[in-house]
Amino acid sequence: MKQIDYFSTEFYQNLQKSPDKAQALRQAMLKTMKNNPNPIDWAAFTLIGEAD
User: Fold this and answer.
1) Which of 2, 14, 15, 51 has CB atoms 3.0–4.6 Å from 22's, for a disulfide?
2) Residue 49 C-beta-side C-alpha neighbours within 13 Å
3) 35 in Cβ contact with 6 (< 8 Å)
């Protein structure tokens, strides 16, 4: 699985568990970072707009 697919899946699964977008993004980044420490796979994602 490509890292972008993994990251996106993690983000949306986290978002289903909790409506806090910032926390969902953070958890997806941490899990992706743990599986693949190369920042190119997770560092470019940012949350734009309101976090809640």
Assistant:
1) 51
2) 3
3) yes
- For the stretch 22-47, pLDDT in tens is 999 999 999 999 988 888 878 888 88
Contact (Cβ atoms closer than 8 angstroms) between residue 51 and residue 20: yes
Two tokens, residue 46: 């940012």
* pTM of the predicted structure, to 2 decimals: 0.82
Tell me the one-letter amino acid at 12: Y
d(CA 12, CA 8): 6
Q: Does residue 32 contact residue 6 with C-beta atoms inside 8 Å?
A: yes
